[in-house]
Amino acid sequence: MDFDRSLGNMAAAWRISAGLTQQTLGAAVGLDQATISRIESGDRKVDVDLLLQILAATGQSLPDVASDIQELAPARPSLWKEQ
Fold it and tell me: Which residues lie in coiled coils (predicted)?
């Protein structure tokens, strides 16, 4: 499963856990229901700003989900690592 689809699945789980519909989540982050559906299916990429908005709207925090998201990310050398 690719990163966007896996992140979309996580976003759907956060939304459902918060008791939100795609429409109410979309309203909270300034998007329409169709765009939320595309995010959840992995057909639309999520930038950091939108991710933070989704987390806030669903009652999640970045520290709580960071390790789960990191597990999804393709292996990349750390930008913070001393070279």
Answer: none
Q: In which residue ranges of the chain is pLDDT below 50?
A: 79-80, 83
pTM, 2 dp: 0.84
Domains parsed from the chain with CATH numbers = 3-70 (1.10.260.40)
In tens, the pLDDT along 21-42 reads 999 999 999 999 999 999 999 9
